[in-house]
Design brief:
Chain lengths: 857, 240
């Protein structure tokens, strides 16, 4: 029996190729996710190993409240941010016996202006300035000299290449506040690849002045003299430290840094694997379809085997054996393809200046998982057709007529139920999320709208898949209606796609999943943009906003903006983080009057301006809900519980997303200036000032700071919306894979149904149907299947999307917007997908020799 | 003048050891408004002859003229057009399109050619095959005899120069066979059609005006106005 199964695969190789390809794509995605993670992991491990090189690190013993949106980060940073240590500790540590050198790690964000006069922008990796020492073991001078004084810098080799700067060039950097003119006096290399980060070396004094102005620094690197071990050194250093500081060994620091990186990479991997799973589900449809058609076609052969004494189990096993072959082949090719894919990504990223040094490494675990997934998907998909083949009575199968399709009524009823329940859950989720008090039924109010949304979405999708065979005939008949005048092509094509609704439905089902996800994404995108745009536009009361590409506006720039003629008032927003009796909180410091001049927010409770005047806190709606704060509550802030503040108002703002908004004077009491960053500055014009002139003046005032832009409220709204668009572009790209697999499914179904219909096609050709006409029939079939899947997918997607604004209202998705132009575009894409899918089957059909086709048995 | 004629027709399959001469120098002239039966044992080349005459298959050598046109040099495109306009087919296994109704199947060649349906002729053909009440049924809802009559009607509706029928009664019981054969004969006598029918059933051949006998790829006999008995006698002579 096994031999029969294997011969079957070999004899009908083409038929299985597309199934193998479907498995391959899914597995390649899975493997690619693993491999991508391992490449990133290896790159960051390299960076950590070559940048966290000290034998001992001194740092604060208390974790620091997380500051929001501080621009850039430090490559040498590891673990959670901590309270800083005073610079005086450096000398104490340097005096310890066995210490070769102790240096403060005063590094921080920098903006480097490239050879073309514009700031060097990276897409993700930080731009960091770090102090360099002549005897720093982590860095090697590759050209020029080390910097001496504030007007000299050195650049890491890849940063120099990206910026287009060479030794001796004059340029500008923005270090801390002010832009300064500097000369590139040298280049240096690090042992690892910089992974796209821009590393700028500056001399120690400049670094300390810039990044440790109040005499504190986050970490101190300590290097041992020869013969002194890490452990021993750390113990000795620990003895001289003041309270509030601790010493850790280099190994511990490296482990912490790795753990942090691994956690982030874990999220990336999970995110990618979700999309891999979607492709695999779509692949399942194709494989199931292939096997059910192949079983149908071979019914007589299988019946012969049964008649010769093969048991149903043997038939079942023989088909599963074929599935096994498909799965193993697909997984094998997929592993190679996945590794190749990541290699390709590496090359592309490297071409864009993001060098990832790690090689593609796949552990045996990864390969096992990939093979298991490929084989599992394949076997699961083939199980139902195999069972059908095994249980059919031999006599029935021997008859000339193929067994009629089984009733789909039960599935339809079940599907309708699932669909209705799913839709109900969606409606409930939307209602719960929208209302503040719930729907009035206590057990329902306790449910999390997000879980309901997830369950409802799954229900609607599953229900639609189950109902789809029953819907196929009426929907396709309607879709085909405009084509009927195209006699006889339209009618023939309609007949072919409605003749086997279940097959059409499962072919379209693969596409439906992808299209549903695309539609949901589209609805989210349009709704978010509509919501963000309207809210941001309405919320900004100031005339202009000064924003920074580095997310930090230099203090000097704030002063420069204040001095522009015609400026009535500036409202800088300073961000910081602080401990409280309710965990760490993020806060924003603003001047009283902020909520009338800068932002005009939705007030849920209390009076925000009054609260700021009275020295009280204004809290955001989300924080209020999550932490249970209400007007009148008292919060205790600061490590030593130094400050008590009363909640004076609850507001709903899309722009200020910190937990607390406090009067600036109170923030100054809580945090030293080095731990505050100015995020944006709102500018209000004096009465009678020409806004266009003011804008020009503002632009020239901030121009020296290189990274600052002046926006009006509409532009600010657009910049918010653009961020959303960028994220969604990635989602679309990942979803495209599932659509490609669905396209393969249509090719597959058409190709197989042409084999099934050989005689009919021969007849049509015999009575005079031309090849182009035949190709036309097949193209129309493909387009109709594709449109059918898309119609269902878009309907499901919009249904799910419609529930989102209710559930995600707090995240700023308050307005439902359905992108109708995009929906039209999706239908256009469906037509194109159908046409592409029909090319190969149509050629195949047109090439069938008429005589063979007519006389085939 | 003859509707279909062939001269020196040769058809060779395979090569070397597996070479088969299915047709070995056949000369025929088939008259218009005649029902001609082609008979012969299995492997005698009768189906091959019909496929070549109908333009479904290319002869290795020889010339074929259908309705005054030489088809041996025709491109596939022109052959397709020829089949669409000048030739009708009836197959042994009906070969209807299962997704179309009887009426749609009958008008299919006209639809493909984008020609308008001559309603009067359509009604006449449908009445002749006795399918007036079955026009909106699908093939699966028709009996074998009815399906074959639909196929006959389809072959005639475009008023082809010649209809080729390949074992049209091969899958039918005797009653249905009689209906179909009676119709084919009437279509010649009353509607003036030309029909060529391949069969190995002497009773079916007895409906013809003329019977051609084939053996080993050559014409082995020619019988006018046959009866079942004279056909059987002729076959007996050939076998001996």
């Amino acid at each position: 029996m096994i031999r029969v199964a294997l011969r079957g695969v070999r004899a009908h190789l083409v038929r299985f190729v597309l199934s193998v390809l479907a498995v391959t794509l899914g597995v390649a995605f899975v493997v690619g996710s693993f491999a991508f993670r391992s490449v990133l992991s290896a790159t960051f491990e390299d960076i950590i190993a070559t940048t966290v090189v000290a034998d001992t690190y001194v740092r604060g013993s208390e974790p620091l409240a997380q500051a929001p949106a501080a621009g850039g980060g430090s490559v040498t940073g590891f673990g959670d941010p901590r309270e800083p240590v005073p610079l005086s500790v450096v000398d104490d540590v340097a005096a310890v016996d066995g210490v070769a050198r102790a240096s403060a790690d005063a590094s921080g964000p920098v903006v480097l202006v490239g050879a073309d006069g514009t700031p060097v922008v990276t897409t993700g990796p930080p731009s960091t300035a770090l102090p360099v020492y002549d005897d720093d073991p982590a860095l090697t001078l590759s050209g020029g000299t080390w910097p001496r004084g504030p007007d000299e810098i050195v650049l890491e080799d890849s940063a120099a290449a990206t910026a287009g700067l060479t030794v001796g060039d004059a340029t500008q950097v923005v270090l801390g506040d002010a832009p300064q003119d500097v000369t590139v006096v040298g280049t240096f290399s690090i042992e690892a690849s910089a992974a796209g980060a821009i590393l700028v070396g500056i001399d120690e004094e400049t670094a300390l002045a810039t990044f440790a102005p109040d005499g504190v620094v986050s970490t101190i690197s300590v290097f041992a003299e020869d013969g002194v071990g890490e452990e021993e050194l750390t113990a000795r250093v620990a003895e001289v430290l003041p309270s509030g500081a601790e010493a850790v060994t280099g190994d511990e620091a490296r482990a912490e840094a790795s753990a942090g990186v691994e956690q982030i990479l874990g999220f990336v991997e999970t995110f990618l694997l979700v999309f891999a799973a979607i492709s695999l589900v779509v692949s399942t449809f194709i494989i199931a379809n292939t096997f059910s058609m192949s079983v149908r076609e071979r019914m007589r052969e299988l019946a012969l085997l049964r008649a010769l004494g093969a048991s149903p189990q043997q038939v079942f096993r023989s088909i599963l054996t074929q599935a096994l072959v498909v799965g193993v082949l697909g997984a094998g090719v997929g592993i190679v393809a996945g590794a190749g894919l990541v290699r390709l990504i590496q090359v592309v990223l490297a071409a864009q200046g993001m060098e990832f040094g790690g090689t593609v490494r796949l552990g045996s675990d990864d390969i096992t998982v990939a093979v298991a997934v490929g084989v599992g998907v394949s076997l699961a998909a083939a199980a139902v057709p195999a069972r059908r083949a095994a249980t059919i009575p031999p006599v029935q199968a021997m008859r000339d007529e193929v067994a009629p399709e089984r009733q789909t009524r039960v599935l339809t009823v079940v599907g309708t139920l699932v669909l209705v329940v799913g839709a109900g859950l969606l409606a409930l989720a939307s209602a719960l999320g929208r209302s503040v008090d719930g729907v009035g039924v206590s057990f329902l109010d306790d449910l999390d709208p997000r879980w309901l949304l997830g369950l409802g979405a799954a229900g609607v999708l599953l229900g639609a898949l189950l109902v789809s065979p029953a819907l196929a005939r009426p929907v396709l008949t309607t879709l085909a209606w405009p084509l009927l005048p195209l006699r006889p092509l339209g009618r023939l094509a309609r007949g072919n796609v409605t003749r086997n609704p279940r097959r059409t439905a499962s072919t379209a089902g693969a596409l439906m999943i992808g299209m549903a996800l695309v539609s949901v994404t589209g609805v989210i995108a349009a709704s978010t943009q509509a919501s963000v745009r309207s809210i941001v536009e309405n919320e900004v009361a100031a005339d202009y906003v000064v924003d920074s590409a580095t997310l930090t506006v230099p203090e000097d720039a704030v002063a420069a903006v204040e001095n522009v003629a015609g400026v009535e008032r500036t409202d800088p927003v300073r961000l910081g983080g602080v401990a409280s009796d309710d965990g760490d909180v993020t806060l924003a410091g603003v001047e009283p009057g902020f909520f009338s001049t800068a932002l005009d927010v939705v007030v849920d409770d209390g009076d925000p301006d009054g609260a700021l005047d009275a020295g009280e806190a204004v809290v955001g709606r989300i924080a209020a809900r999550e932490r249970g704060w209400a007007v009148g509550d008292t919060l205790t802030l600061g490590r030593e519980a130094s400050t008590q503040v009363t909640v004076g108002a609850v507001v709903d703002s899309q722009i200020v997303t910190t937990d607390l908004v406090l009067p600036q004077s109170m923030v100054d009491d809580l945090l030293p200036p080095s731990q505050q960053t100015v995020r944006v500055v709102y500018v209000t014009a004096a009465d009678g000032t020409d806004l266009a002139t003011l804008r020009t003046d503002l632009q020239s005032a901030v121009e020296p700071f290189v990274v600052l832009t002046v926006l009006d409220s509409e532009e600010l709204a657009s910049s918010f919306a653009d961020q959303v668009t960028q994220v969604l572009a990635i989602l679309y790209a990942l979803l495209a894979l599932s659509i490609v697999i669905a396209l393969l499914g249509i090719v597959n179904t058409l190709a197989l149904s042409i084999i099934e219909r050989t005689r009919e096609i021969g007849l049509l050709r015999a009575v005079g149907l031309g090849r182009l006409q035949l190709a036309g029939v097949i193209a129309i079939e493909a387009v109709m299947i594709s449109l059918y899947g898309t119609v269902l997918g878009v309907a499901v997607g919009i249904a799910i999307g419609a529930a989102l604004p209710g559930v995600l209202a707090d995240e700023g998705l308050s307005t439902l917007a359905i992108p109708w132009d995009q929906v039209l575009g999706v239908f256009g894409a469906a037509v194109v997908i159908g046409l592409i899918a029909s090319v190969w089957p149509a050629i195949r059909a047109a090439r069938l020799p008429v005589l063979d086709a007519v006389t085939v048995d | 003048m003859s509707k279909v004629s062939a001269r020196g027709l040769v058809k060779v399959y395979g090569q070397g050891d597996t070479l088969v001469r299915a047709l070995d120098g056949v000369d025929v002239d088939l008259d218009g408004a005649h029902l001609t039966a082609v008979m012969g044992p299995s492997g005698s080349g009768k189906s091959t002859l019909m496929h070549c005459l109908a333009g479904l298959d290319r002869a290795t050598a020889g010339t074929i003229v259908v309705d005054g046109t030489e088809i041996g040099r025709m491109s596939q495109r022109r052959l397709t057009a020829l089949r669409r306009t000048r030739v009708g087919f009836v197959f042994q296994s009906y070969n209807l399109v299962p997704t179309l109704t009887a009426e749609e199947n009958i008008t299919l060649p006209l639809d493909i050619a984008r020609a308008t349906v001559d309603r009067a002729w359509f009604d006449e053909v449908v009445a002749a095959v006795g399918l007036e009440n079955r026009l909106h049924h699908r093939p699966a809802e028709l009996s074998g005899g009815q399906q074959q009559r639909v196929a006959c009607a389809r072959a005639l509706v475009s008023r082809p120069s010649v209809v080729f029928a390949d074992e049209p009664t091969g899958n039918l019981d005797s009653r249905s066979s009689a209906e179909v054969l009676g119709f084919l004969r009437r279509s010649v006598d009353e509607l003036g059609q030309t029909v060529v029918m391949v069969t190995h059933d002497p009773r079916a051949a007895s409906y013809a005006h003329r019977v051609l006998f084939l053996a080993d790829g050559r014409i082995a006999g020619d019988l006018m106005d046959p009866t079942q008995q004279t056909v059987l006698d002729a076959l007996g002579e050939m076998a001996s």
